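Pasting as-is:
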Amino acid sequence: MSADSKYTKNIEQFICSREPKNRSGILMQDSAARLGISVNEVEQIQKPYTFIYQRLPVEVEGEIVNISSGIILHNRARGPYKGGIRIARDVNVWETTELARLMTLKTALANLELGGGKAGILVNFEKLYERFKSRLKLDYYPFVDMLKDHIMKEFVDHFVERNLLRIYIPAPDMGSSGREMMLFYNKTHDPASVTAKPEGIEGWLPGRHEATGFGTAYAVLKYLEYLGKKPSRMTVGIQGFGNVGSHAAFYLREAGCKVVAVTDLHGGVYHKEGIDIPALMAYAREKRTIKGYDDKRTIDNEQLFSLPVDILIPAASGHVVNAKNCDKVGVKLVVVEAANMPVTYDAFRRLKKRGIDLLPDNFVNSGGVIASDLEYRQGLGGQRFNRNEVLAHLKGKFDEMFGEMLNRKDKSGSFTQAASDIATERIYRAMKTRSLL
């Protein structure tokens, strides 16, 4: 069948929109061609199984504000749908679809008994704050926290009503954190219903909070070990200093790397001699931004991307390295995708021609879902894990994934394509075994 098959039209005509071309879809199609998977079969693997739209009416100062949200349940051939809740002002159905697909690829690459899903909640906090601030006696961040409380309570009510417990297992994503997962647990009282719960909440996992950043740093160190390069001779630039970027910076500095530049949504800092990451983390915890940390040595995202660092780590939003700016990217060795889909397909191809490696997102940032898998199974009544056991488990999984990618790298063409081949093949085999193809 062609790409205009009846199956494709039935899904996309329903929402009167066609999914734009994106990297995960192109890579999966390329993998299918290398693996001998038919066009019709790869469509069944690519397309989401379920899309759920939810209107979340929340009250602000006596006024009802309608928040749009959606859940994409992509594929559960290998296990329950797993993926985060993204809260942002640019969420849409196709971004959420690609993120759900990426979770399917991520759990398959890590060889977990999980599938892929994603939730997106569309809300512009800045705009709403401007609308209500004259009536409120709250600063911006307390207002955001209050509104997230209302949104999550409404979201979980819908979730429970639709009987999605243990069918789709949420976790944090951009705009959400352990705090929102706690609100989720408050409704379900089920430790296996959600992962990345805060410390002390029934079923919480030591090491889960830093798992994605720790995994990112360990992925970099595996890559440097493969090349025979010393961490102490490497310079690093990191875009994004949230939970992932900050912990990646901490562990890379601890290993000897020199983190010279960091940015977040509001500003950034550049220290040629290396940034004091623990001090920057303490500042960010207090201010909720790194803006103002050192007004004499500031940097923005555009400047960060142009720096001639050895290692560039986009750890914030998607598509930040693209066809428009990739030729100006100054990285010398490798781009490490701590965020989801920060490098577009066109940019990936052009960086590859320049001899710059790309460590893909479904490998680099899989530490979170690997730890979440432990937390989920612990919540089902399995053994308890301490922090050292969790981090050791992460290292073992990353060793395994990196070795598998290396074995396929030459034949597939790159680390990125090798990761796609491994994941696509595992999903295909599971669907064949379960007679889903």
